[in-house]
Specification:
Length: about 450
């Protein structure tokens, strides 16, 4: 595969000021020589040159471009690389790509540029996956954590743990291979301390994984309540823009509205739903069914109630529906005279948090945002660590490492033979190695890089 030269458009298709076509591989410069108005082979690495892309067959000028040269190994892929920056329209970019393919390149597969960077050992697998996290980051905090991973901070942590286990494994192998030799060996309590040290760090990474998942995927948050309690007004207030239609007529919202809100660096995938009430027609019935499906899948529920009205039958029914979810009760319209029975709410939702806001007057929203963060990370780790685990694959590997290390410690305490301990140590090493790509199968690589866009 690495013998091929690949090419792809690396910017989104559509109209734009600029667009980029990438070429990488052993024939990158010879292809550029054929299609660029200057001889690339004579130009220095890490330089940018103005010229034209020309179709070698028709001699037609395709586009006026800037061509960047990266000689191996000092490129993203660690191969000879060319980046052609032309005008951002779909026609010129496709024509540039077309002449690249016609003159010796093949179309890159999804993520193949980054995969080559991994295979050529310029980056490890955790760093490669961080590229996707950077592209998909929904908040500045998510971007910051992804950049730390691209810089190799998680990889460095994992490699440090692997070295600890490799040293421990080496002592065990000596005991297995040379049982009669007078060689200094680790005592059981020393082995136990070394394994425990690594296990402690693995558990620390796992504690932060929930926060990492939140940063990567966001918190699926549903705004729910009976009609006309101000659900859409609350959404607009949190978004700081008018996204949902707000009228005094109950039932205005008939469809699901989804938005992403940045709450102190955490992405809230927030859903404004139709009011839960007795369905009055086919459309309303379908809207309520969608609301219930959204409620079932929610990580967090914002139950909105009207401070200026008494609790209704629908309020009581909704409270019963959400008792087993993570819920914040939002008492809205507190700018009006308050008559709602808070004690009744506490009887049913006794352990749920209650906050008073006025969506129209923009009061209480800051406290609501802080309450959301507190509730999500209650008993867990907030996402501030530079080596935060954000990837479900990494979390799974760490969980298997944790189990293997617990087996190691159990075997040491029972004075079992070195062979048993060594087998579990190898399993722990293999699991950690999956994170950085030291021990990974081709199938896993294909699955990881298939998630990338073609030009990355």
């Amino acid at each position: 595969m690495l013998e091929d030269t690949i090419a792809a458009i690396s910017t989104p298709i559509g109209e734009g000021g600029l667009g980029i076509v990438r070429i990488s591989g052993p024939r990158a410069f010879s292809i550029a020589n054929k299609i660029f108005s200057k001889k690339v082979s004579r130009l220095s690495s890490h330089t940018v040159h103005h010229g034209h892309i020309i179709d070698p067959k028709s001699k037609d000028k395709i586009d006026e471009v800037m061509l960047s040269i990266f000689r191996k190994p000092r490129s993203f892929t660690a191969e000879d690389m060319i980046e052609i920056t032309g005008h951002g329209g779909i026609v010129p970019l496709r024509r540039i790509l077309g002449v690249c393919l016609a003159n010796g390149a093949r179309l890159a597969e999804p993520g193949e540029f980054t995969k080559r960077a991994f295979l050529n050992e310029r980056i490890d697998l955790a760093q490669a996956e961080a590229v996707v996290d950077i592209i998909r980051a929904k908040t500045e905090m998510g971007l910051k954590v992804a950049l730390h991973q691209l810089d190799g901070e998680l990889s460095s942590k994992i490699e440090g743990l692997r070295q600890e286990l490799i040293n421990l494994s080496a002592h065990l192998e000596v005991a297995i291979d040379f049982p009669q030799e007078d060689i200094e060996r680790l005592e059981s309590n020393q082995m136990l301390l070394k394994a425990e040290k690594v296990l402690k760090e693995v558990k620390k990474l796992l504690r932060g994984a929930e926060g990492g998942k939140v940063l990567r995927e966001g918190i699926k948050t549903v705004i729910i309540g009976r009609p006309n309690v101000g659900k859409s007004s609350l959404l607009n207030a949190l978004l700081k823009e008018k996204r949902a239609i707000v009228t005094p007529i109950p039932g205005t919202t008939r469809d699901i509205i989804e938005e992403i809100i940045n709450v102190k660096g955490i992405p809230l995938k927030i859903i404004d739903t139709a009011g839960l009430t007795t369905p009055g027609g086919v459309v309303e019935k379908e809207s309520i069914e969608r609301t219930r499906r959204s409620l079932e899948a929610a990580d967090l529920v914002l139950l909105v109630m009207d401070a200026a009205t008494y609790l209704s039958k629908e309020d009581y029914e909704i409270m019963e529906d959400v008792r087993d979810k993570k819920v914040i009760v939002v008492i809205n319209k507190t700018d009006l005279p308050e008559v709602i029975e808070l004690n009744e709410i506490r009887k049913i939702l006794h352990d749920k948090r209650i906050i008073k806001v006025s969506a129209t007057k923009k009061t209480g929203l800051g406290r609501l945002e802080r309450m959301v963060i507190d509730l999500i990370f209650e008993g867990g780790v907030a996402p501030s660590d530079r080596t935060l685990v954000t990837n479900i694959r990494h979390k799974d590997a760490l969980e298997r490492t944790e189990r293997s290390l617990e087996n190691v410690m159990g075997s040491i305490r029972k004075n079992m033979s070195a062979e048993f301990i060594s087998a579990d140590l190898k399993a722990a090493l293999d699991s950690l190695g999956e994170i950085t790509g030291k021990t990974v199968t081709e199938d896993i690589l294909d699955e990881i890089f298939s998630q990338f866009c073609i030009g990355k």
